[in-house]
């Protein structure tokens, strides 16, 4: 900070400063003198800037590749950022990309056309979505060897949008190869591929509408029935299993549950067993005297 005859001088113009100033770099400046050396716009002293014999506004004139100020009058604007010409290079081959050379903006990375074509042979060609058949003019995804709108690359069964990087399976629908997500049940698909489908555990046919989930399997509503009497079991009613198959409560009581030797009715819960016979607790009588509840033998 320079002073002359008791006056405070601006570090930029070296003229006297009146009542208002900014303090930066341990010096005082007129507000309009503390400005970017490139764009000449005033710099907020509270924001970051570079100082190397000159001042630069970091937020507007800094190359995002080398993080140094852009002092030349010529630069390249790409994705709302300014680059030094020598810094504007392909992220794969590191070749300098000209300002008027077409390039592919690959996920935020600068990619020259030659390198982009190695990843996607359709670069530079008019693209058509394999899903809807319409032209693609902005973002797209590559899947099953074709280009798709990102919202069109979805499961042929549940219509969930699929990320091409996740696991999916190929099936043929109306002569087209389309994806199916890995959330749908596995069966054998086109060309020997494992494809997930929902298959009824009862009739072993594909389920294309509503279904019941029971015993960790999918069932048509009409196929979820008692394996003994063939009565349809409502998904809300209680049922038991026998050898992994559903059994209604009626058939379980009549044919699969232990019966009391005395009264002949099914035994629910605990029972008494004697000489390979089962009894309700309240039905137990002495085999000798036949009296219950007090035995005189």
From TrEMBL:
Signal peptide: none annotated. It comes from the Eukaryota. One of its GO terms (cellular component) is nucleus. Keywords: LIM domain, Metal-binding, Repeat, Zinc. SUPFAM superfamilies: Glucocorticoid receptor-like (DNA-binding domain). Residues 8-73, 127-191, 198-258 form the LIM zinc-binding domain. GO terms for molecular function: metal ion binding; transcription coregulator activity. The keyword Ion transport does not apply. SMART domains: LIM. InterPro entries: Znf_LIM. This is Unclassified LIM protein ML07501b. It comes from Mnemiopsis leidyi (Sea walnut).
């Amino acid at each position: 900070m320079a002073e002359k005859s008791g006056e405070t001088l601006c570090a930029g113009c070296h003229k006297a400063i009146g009542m208002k100033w900014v303090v930066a770099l341990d010096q005082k400046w007129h507000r309009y003198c503390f400005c970017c050396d490139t764009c000449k716009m005033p710099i907020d002293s509270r924001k970051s800037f570079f100082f190397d014999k000159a001042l630069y506004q970091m937020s507007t004139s800094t190359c995002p590749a080398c993080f140094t100020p852009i002092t030349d009058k010529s630069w390249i604007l790409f994705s709302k950022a300014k680059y030094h010409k020598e810094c504007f290079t392909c992220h794969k081959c590191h070749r300098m990309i000209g300002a008027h050379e077409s390039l592919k903006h690959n996920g935020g990375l600068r990619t020259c056309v030659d390198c982009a074509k190695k990843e996607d042979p359709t670069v530079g060609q008019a693209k058509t979505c394999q899903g809807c058949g319409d032209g693609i003019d902005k973002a797209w995804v590559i899947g099953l060897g074709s280009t798709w709108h990102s919202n069109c690359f979805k499961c042929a069964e549940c219509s969930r949008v699929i990320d091409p990087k996740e696991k999916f399976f190929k099936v043929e629908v109306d002569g087209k190869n389309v994806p199916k997500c890995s959330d749908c049940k596995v069966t054998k698909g086109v060309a020997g591929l494992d494809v997930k489908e929902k298959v009824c555990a009862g009739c072993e046919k594909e389920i294309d509408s509503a279904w019941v989930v029971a015993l960790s399997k999918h069932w048509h509503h009409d196929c979820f029935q008692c394996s003994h009497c063939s009565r349809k079991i409502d998904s809300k009613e209680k049922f038991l299993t026998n050898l992994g198959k559903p059994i209604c409560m009626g058939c379980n009581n009549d044919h699969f549950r232990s019966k009391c030797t005395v009264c002949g009715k099914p035994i629910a819960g605990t029972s008494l067993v004697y000489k390979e016979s089962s009894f309700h607790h309240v039905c137990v009588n002495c085999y000798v005297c036949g009296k219950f509840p007090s035995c005189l033998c």
